[in-house]
Amino acid sequence: MEAVRVYADIHGLSPEAFEEIRQSMPFDQVVYKDRLLAVDFEGHYIDVEPFLNDVARLLDDDGWGKLDFIDQIDYALTRYVIKKGHWQAKDVLVDNVVEKVHLESGV
């Protein structure tokens, strides 16, 4: 099992901003198109906060995003909400997220 999973959708990131952070991103699986950056990462432990600082600094004025950091070893989820100039972290119960997805999928 991989140590962490990271999923993010970040809206309002210009092509120039994406180029600025592209080389320093701690992720190997990203898709960037039409000012939207999507992250899908599974792997070793990484520090996402420097990335969040860069994204918050470079977002368009009306840009926003969410990043979920799932620690699969400690079974913990931290949800980061990103806006221009800042981000906030909130611990979320993993079971609540998994149960909601389960209910929405009808499985």
TrEMBL record:
Superkingdom of source: Bacteria
Protein name: Uncharacterized protein
Source organism (scientific name): Humidesulfovibrio mexicanus
